Amino acid sequence: PVFAASIGNPETIGESGKVAVGIEYDDSRQSLHLKDGRVNDGVTGSSFNASSMRLKTHTEYATITVGALQNLDVFASLGVNKARLNLNTEYGDGGYETFEINDGSNIAWKTGVKGTFADISGIKLGGMVQYSAFKMNDTFKVDGTELDDLFAPVSASYNSKTRVHEWQAALTAGTKVAMFTPYAGVTYAKTSVSSDTDIHVASDGVNPAYDVNVSIEAKQAHSFGGVVGTGINDALFKGVNLNMEGRFGNEDALTATINYQF
To answer: How many whole angstroms from its chain centre is CA 107?
Structure first.
């Protein structure tokens, strides 16, 4: 059996050319480390640090998995993502602000490979590598106020673009107990976040119009973690497999999948 594109389950389709399709729900929260943060109005600029930075995502994927070799699968997923980035900033002059970037709906995708390396006395050893990406193009708030309202009563507008890229890998061991395939292992993740926001503030009749740019570069705070989960073979009827797993350490995440193998 195969369990869609779950991070940890070492099971594969087991035959070249076989296909499975599935649906995956992923809920993830992870801490980030700010590499560079800047505010620039074209005349003066200032940098800021972050006391904390968190990325929260909720994603629903449609996934297709193809057996490339007997114990090697390739998969691709396309879905809809909802994300929020929170950043508590600290400036050199002692000031601080809270940034919040939200995106209610955007396209997310990922692709990768997973394989079974060995079967030792009923214990399967396997691994996977995947790359995923999505964008955030919705709202940007400072201390709870959206940017275009921050300069009221002066008219202002903004355009915010945030790109998130992530590499994930896992090495796991699993076995079979009746219809269940429990597994556990270690994970590695490398997330990068790049955000660029352009703000245009209109003239108030006394001062001329001006532009402000806010740029953010961040990476995952913790790279290594763990995963624990289980698959359920032929859960509803033959060919339908379920999988649930939790990941911790480098992220706090829950993934649930259901798929049908042809």
So the answer is: 12
Read off the pTM.
0.89
What 3-state class would DSSP assign to 147? Answer: helix
Closest CA to 148 of 161, 158, 159: 158
- Contacts of residues 112-115 at CB distance under 8 Å and 24 or more positions apart, as own/partner, are 112/5, 112/74, 112/75, 112/168, 113/68, 113/72, 113/73, 113/74, 113/75, 114/5, 114/10, 114/12, 114/72, 114/73, 114/75, 115/12, 115/69, 115/71, 115/72, 115/73
pLDDT confidence of residue 235: 66
**Token pair of 83, please?**
């994300």
Burial of 94 (0-12, 13-18, 19+ CB in 10 A): exposed
| Rounded CA separation 235/3 (Å) | 12
- Calpha distance 96→81 (Å, rounded): 30
Cis check: omega of the bond before 10, within 30 degrees of 0: no
Q: How far apart are CA 183 and CA 227, in angstroms?
A: 8
* Strand runs labelled E in the chain: 19-40, 45-69, 72-91, 96-120, 123-136, 139-142, 145-146, 156-174, 180-201, 210-220, 224-232, 240-248, 252-261
| Sign of the dihedral defined by the CA atoms of residues 111, 117, 118, 123, in that order | negative
Q: How confident is the model at residue 195 (pLDDT cuts 50, 70, 90)?
A: very high
pLDDT at 120 (0 to 100): 92
217-238: average pLDDT: 88
